[in-house]
Amino acid sequence: MGLSSDDILVVIGALYLVATALFIFGLKRLGSPATARSGNALAALGMLVAVVATLIDREILSFELIVVGILVGLAIGAILARTILMTAMPQLVAIFNGFGGAASALVAAAVLRESLAGTDDLSTDTSITVMIGTLIGAVTLSGSLVAFGKLQEIVVTRPVTFPLQKTVSGLLFVGILVAIGYLVAEPGMEIYAAMAVACLLLGVLLVIPIGGADMPVVISLLNSYSGLAAAAAGFALGNVMLIIAGSLVGAAGLILTQTMTKAMNRSLANVMFGAFGAAEQGRPAAGGGEARPVNESGPEDAAIMLAYARQAIFVPGYGLAVAQAQHQLRGLADLMEAKGVEVKFAIHPVAGRMPGHMNVLLAEAEVPYDKLYDLDQINDQFEDTDVVVVIGANDVVNPAAREDASSPIYGMPILNVDKARHVLVLKRSLNPGFAGIDNDLFYKPNTSMLFGDAKESLIKVAREMEEV
Amino acid sequence: MFENALLIELYVLVLAVFVGFEVITKVPPTLHTPLMSGANAISGITVLGALLVVGQAGETVATVLGMLALILATVNVVGGFMVTDRMLQMFKKKPESQE
Predict the structure, then answer these.
(1) CA triplet A282, A288, A294: central angle to 5 degrees?
(2) For the whole model, what pTM was predicted?
């Protein structure tokens, strides 16, 4: 080769610049439905360019292990991506976040290990960034695993709290900072390993007190952390590409986190440390409002009401995802449209357990996205709507958020479905939602309840409708 | 301009964070899930770090750590971009499959 090492570094730098442009342009195009797919492809191309650029680095001597590692990762990633159910998307993103965080922490650990084994001394800058990369990466890993467990309902979805929890977490964090300080002065693998374990524990302690209903915020935040961990690993390696891509993702995740907390009218601190819903544990569904009457409806009544409505708005929530009923919902909506009903879908920003999750499910059922409306677009339309059908949604339609100043969700922007002429609620039972808060909507005179699994109920209503 | 690499890296960090904020701010809620999973795939950029560690073929423990990092980061990158594409190909404006 006629190229000197310096020439190669220039080529790598230039390719990183191309990759950076592709990442930014790709993220930009991900922001609009018409261009999003090409945006994702551009970002993927950017990643390919960055990987190729890295492989021409003269420091890379051995390719056998690299090929093995990439092939294994490629196979696992492709299988997961192809087989995952759309309803399980939040879990998948949670686990991918965890993998990203873990990889960054492992890279940081390897940098430390190399330098301890070799002769080159670790500069203070590098060792600080190694420690920060380990901290963020490990917290992202264990936090994501707990989030995954909660979403998959392996781990209890209610907030798990114990006395002095915040104190314990705080002390642990201080302990980690002290260990980092010591390690920067006196690097050693044993104390480093202990520090890493403490970081993993911290991640568990941070996510375990957060309730299932707040998972959209947690996933966004962990997404941000996984980016920041990559940026920190970039500092440890002195690799600008990692810093750029990592901080792009870190910023993007923060924006989404902020959007989510705004949609819940809460602060990030309140989500993280408020143990939201834990206070309700003493007030289970069986206790409080058991004597309150509800209007129970059957599939026939529901079908008649929907068939003769002029306008109907569907409000899907996580219950729809659990029942995998998105296709049945689309089927019912088609039947109604054939009867001349004007059908729309209203999506609350935090419906489901991940931002935008409902939109993905409805897209899977081939509901065109221009029939989906978000909160601001649709909230004044409920008054002029004959029937609103709430499917497995709860807190996002709870009027207490508007009316009851003592409610934990007071102030959260909700879909004003109670303003419609009729409300039909498809729900498994009267049990409160993930936030564990009773919902007055179910007891209103213009509300009918159709109990049962969302999928079965939708099938029954559709069957009745064909006979109307 | 500067000899200090750390300072230049910090400049890069701050500018990239601002670009990230600007690029993401006005994304419609419809796209929040694909955006998040696409961004998540980009955070697998740490695969470059893993490549450098594994490729150096240095100390054994470091190589093992790097190898684990390489696999996890590759899963993150490949799975992330693929699943995002799978989601996005479902987003359609007009129901074309219908007559």
Answers:
(1) 145
(2) 0.86
A179 CB contacts (<8 Å, ≥6 apart)? Answer: A191, A194, A195, A198
The reply to whether residue A60 touches residue B56, judged by beta carbons under 8 angstroms, is yes
- Verify that A18 and A48 share a domain, yes or no: yes
Distance from C-alpha of B72 to C-alpha of A76, rounded to nearest angstrom: 9
A-B interface: how many C-beta pairs under 8 angstroms?
A: 387
From A214, A395, A418, A438, active-site residue: A395
Residue contact B32–A356, C-beta within 8 A: yes
CA-closest candidate to residue A55, choices A20, A3, A16, A23:
A16
Token pair 């955070």 in the structure block, residue: B43
Q: Is the ipTM of this complex over 0.90?
A: yes
- Is B45 inside a domain boundary? yes
> What is chain B's length?
99
In this structure, are A217 and A265 located in the same domain?
A: yes
Q: How many domains does chain B have?
A: 1
A243 closest CA partner among B73, B25, B51, B14 = B14
The 10s digit of each residue's pLDDT in A135-176 is: 999 999 999 999 999 888 887 777 777 878 888 889 999 999
> Which range of residues forms the domain containing residue A71?
1-78
Q: Is residue A26 part of a domain?
A: yes
- Check if A120 is active-site: no
The C-alpha atoms of residue A131 and residue A134 are separated, in whole angstroms, by: 5
Put simply, the answer to whether B69 touches A110 (Cβ < 8 Å) is yes
| Gap between the Cα atoms of B43 and B87, Å rounded | 19
